[in-house]
Design the sequence.
């Protein structure tokens, strides 16, 4: 492939506002205004968060099947929570809460959306930077602050929160009476998410303004690459979703520290104490939380859908059967995502008629998801698919998206949810479709864009090895979760003491071993990432023969992206399968008119 | 490499389907089937579950097989190989998705509504056995109205677990509460409808009996209720499914379905113990 790499098409126009990069270390690497540095900072933060989150999942899996085994070093993390390395039931719940919060907020929201979006959205539309570079810097550092606040909860006196990432009130709202970890640790959780919401709102505003205002000449909306569309749609979703979670967290904090009763009704007796609250509603928290929580699923998955489509098109050497239909599907999903939050609450005691009203749009959301899947599959037909580490993860994404998607058929129906609600079936469903699928999107994006971001190629063989372990491993972990759910295995239990759960423990043991192995295989990725960053082969400008604007510039891109020039765009984003002077593709900024070959 | 991907996807799809079809963990005897249903409404949920399983299972297998097949066939082709368009193009696929998935979802939605309605849309019969359930960290308690058929009023400030006043009754001033029967197990007669009135003492909990196909949250501040009829004598586990604190995993009680005679005897005995 390398010998067919073609020199980037020169950028049209004169340099009109060429900028020099900042010279000071702080401005260059820490408080940088450069969207590319900020993108990498987000990526780095997500990487730290995902490794902490993964280790926490290991601790949970080990505790579930070998509860009495003293885990080396765990005793040092918390003398109270894990005396001698054996964790207490409440510490298990703390780890569960921290795992979920880290993964959903700091990994699945940060990496595919904030990290790659920051780095590539401005470049793909031909802009020099984001619309508001200072806001952008603020979003990252605010996110970082939120991360520090959350991590601090590990080290407070009565331990990290135990209410789960959903933090249902009143368990999360009444304070230390509700148990260890519900004291200061839970307040820190609320504060962390509150700060995170501010960061995400700033970020999404910035993305929206950048996409609408800073597109270069010729870059019409329909000429934007599919991942730019995905980031744009995601920012619109995030703007509305986090705007609801923000006040919800504020109210939760007020209930905890100011004695208000937004989520706490009268007459609760907790730890033998009649609580001094009245008038609040626990269901209000659930409605506010899930009004954010369901769109959040799409905040995680839509950027991955965009990234994967972008990479698949490049690997298939042909455009999708329909660019527009996929974009309309993403918009449809974004719109519907606000009408379905109640499907998390079928058995919560809300009016049973509203369950049916929430069930219907949930089932309807299957239609755009199916259309997208069929378009990916239909586009594979008759293509010239190149197998790379990036395209393997993109193909693996389709497989995971389908597997996680079909279990949604069950959970969308309130009648079946009566049986499956709060079981491992739900855990399997959302880990596959939101967790693993989105992470496959992140991996695909990393293997694909790493050369551009660092100027070095990643090792392809190690990348493929990493894929095989991860692909098979994640199926071994998450498929059995569905079977356990069908047997009624309840989630969020720190031990299986019920008569009907004990016989299922061997399956849990299998899952734990699979999780340990799959987790260990991520070291291949980490090694590849670090080693390639310093020792990887130098990356050409356009190693994958891709058509979008990020590939017309040197790898890594200069500080001001296009050297102060205005790029002019002449084509739709995916001119593949054509006959041009560059080969079977045509760059978006090439004035040439290519002959369609098919 | 593309062919390897195709083989692995194919194998994973087949292996994933085996435990669903055989209801067991590859011949080890570990059962994944929902336990036999003991309720009058549960069969509707079970039917709905199996219908969905067929539809979801076929969609899953079809999509994975097509993915595997196309990657097998179209990966690493010659650089000058002809690029073909899927017959019918995007329009055909969109129509196929709308028609197939649309009708499938509509069918599931309409059928599922019946199963849901059988649990939630019909009120309990007036002659149903009235039982009150209270969930608190980390135990369930049940209360029967006693011979007078009336529940005494609740006074949260009078809750005193040390003296077994779990519900906060006030027998000194409240006549209705004097014959109320409070127990830690839910005993019910077979083939008689039970109207379970649920409230939480402290935080959120849930009432889940797999065999009964019933799951309902306890929400603090809300009086919720479910009704069901058990059709098989036996002892079944009631577990909490809403994260309620450190003892969540251990919060359980038993549902004891008795014949009418055994139930009457049980009630008599409990009444004498109060």
Sequence:
């Amino acid at each position: 492939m390398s010998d067919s790499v073609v020199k980037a098409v020169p950028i049209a126009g004169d340099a009109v506002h060429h900028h020099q990069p900042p010279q000071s270390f702080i401005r260059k690497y820490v408080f940088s205004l450069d969207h590319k540095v900020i993108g990498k900072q987000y990526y780095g933060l997500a990487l730290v968060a995902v490794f902490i989150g993964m280790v926490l999942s290991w601790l949970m899996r080990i505790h579930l099947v070998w509860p009495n085994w003293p885990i080396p070093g765990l005793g040092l993390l918390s003398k109270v929570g894990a005396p001698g390395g054996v964790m207490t039931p409440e510490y298990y719940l703390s780890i569960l809460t921290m795992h979920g919060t880290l993964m959903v907020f700091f990994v699945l929201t940060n990496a595919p959306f904030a990290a790659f979006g920051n780095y590539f959205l401005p470049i793909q539309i031909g802009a020099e930077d984001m619309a508001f570079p200072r806001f952008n810097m603020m979003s990252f550092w605010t996110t970082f602050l939120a991360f520090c606040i959350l991590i601090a909860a590990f080290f407070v006196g009565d331990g990290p929160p135990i209410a789960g990432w959903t933090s249902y009130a009143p368990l999360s709202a009444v304070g230390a009476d509700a148990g260890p970890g519900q004291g200061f640790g839970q307040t820190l959780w609320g504060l962390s998410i509150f700060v995170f919401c501010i960061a995400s709102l700033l970020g999404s505003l910035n993305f929206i303004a950048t996409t609408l205002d800073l597109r270069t000449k010729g870059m019409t909306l329909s000429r934007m690459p599919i991942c730019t569309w995905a980031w744009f749609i995601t920012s619109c979703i995030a703007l509305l979703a986090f705007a609801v979670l923000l006040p919800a967290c504020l109210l939760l904090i007020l209930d905890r520290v100011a004695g208000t009763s937004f989520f706490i009704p009268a007459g609760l007796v907790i730890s033998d104490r009649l609580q001094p609250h009245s008038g609040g509603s626990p269901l209000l928290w659930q409605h506010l939380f899930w009004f954010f929580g369901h769109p959040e699923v799409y905040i995680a998955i839509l950027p991955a859908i965009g990234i994967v489509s972008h990479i698949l098109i490049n690997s298939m050497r042909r455009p999708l059967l329909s660019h527009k239909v996929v974009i309309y599907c993403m918009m449809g999903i974004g719109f519907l995502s606000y009408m379905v939050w109640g499907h998390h609450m079928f058995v919560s005691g809300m009016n049973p008629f509203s369950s049916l009203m929430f069930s219907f749009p949930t089932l309807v959301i299957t239609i755009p998801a199916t259309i997208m899947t069929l378009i990916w599959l239909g586009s594979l037909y008759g293509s010239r698919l190149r197998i790379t580490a990036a395209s393997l993860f993109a193909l693996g994404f389709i497989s995971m998206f389908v597997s996680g998607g079909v279990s949604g058929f069950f959970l969308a129906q309130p009648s079946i949810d009566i049986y499956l609600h709060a079981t491992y079936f739900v855990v399997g469903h959302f880990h596959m479709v939101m967790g693993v699928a989105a992470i496959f999107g992140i991996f695909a994006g990393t293997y694909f864009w790493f050369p551009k971001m660092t100027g070095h190629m990643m090792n392809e063989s190690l990348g493929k090895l990493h894929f095989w372990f991860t692909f098979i491993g994640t199926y071994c972990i998450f498929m059995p979760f569905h079977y356990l759910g069908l047997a009624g295995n309840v989630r969020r239990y720190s031990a299986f003491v019920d008569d009907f759960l004990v016989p299922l423990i061997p399956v849990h043991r299998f899952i734990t071993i699979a999780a340990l192995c799959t987790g260990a295989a991520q070291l291949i990725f980490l090694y590849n990432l670090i080693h390639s960053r310093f020792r990887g082969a130098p990356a050409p400008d356009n190693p994958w023969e891709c058509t979008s604007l990020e590939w017309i510039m040197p790898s890594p891109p200069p500080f001001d992206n296009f050297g102060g020039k205005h790029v002019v765009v002449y084509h739709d984003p995916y001119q593949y399968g054509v006959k041009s002077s560059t080969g079977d593709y045509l760059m978006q900024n090439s004035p040439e008119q290519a002959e369609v070959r098919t | 490499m593309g062919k390897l991907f195709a083989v692995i996807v194919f194998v994973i799809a087949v292996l994933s389907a085996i435990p669903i079809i055989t209801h067991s963990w590859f011949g080890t005897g570990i059962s994944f089937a929902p336990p036999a249903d003991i309720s009058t409404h549960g069969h509707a949920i079970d039917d709905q579950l199996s219908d969905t399983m067929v539809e979801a299972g076929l969609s899953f297998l079809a999509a994975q097989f097509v993915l595997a097949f196309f990657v097998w066939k179209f990966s690493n082709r010659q650089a000058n190989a002809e690029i073909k368009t899927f017959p019918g193009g995007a329009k055909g696929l969109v129509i196929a998705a709308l028609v197939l998935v649309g009708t499938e979802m509509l069918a599931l939605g309409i059928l599922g509504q019946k199963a849901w309605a059988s649990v939630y849309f019909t009120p309990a019969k007036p002659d149903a056995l009235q039982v009150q359930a209270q969930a608190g960290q980390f135990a369930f308690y049940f209360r029967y109205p006693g011979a007078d058929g009336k529940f005494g009023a609740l006074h949260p400030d009078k809750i005193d677990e040390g003296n077994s006043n779990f519900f906060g009754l006030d027998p000194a001033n409240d006549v209705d509460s004097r014959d109320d029967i409070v127990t830690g197990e839910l005993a019910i007669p077979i083939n008689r409808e039970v109207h379970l009135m649920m409230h939480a003492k402290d935080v959120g909990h849930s009432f889940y009996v797999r065999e009964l196909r019933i799951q309902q949250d306890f929400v603090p501040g809300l009086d919720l209720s479910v009704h069901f009829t058990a059709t098989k004598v036996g002892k079944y586990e009631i577990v909490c499914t809403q994260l309620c604190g450190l003892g969540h995993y251990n919060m359980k009680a038993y549902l004891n379905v008795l014949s009418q005679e055994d139930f009457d005897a049980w009630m008599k005995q409990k009444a004498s113990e109060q």
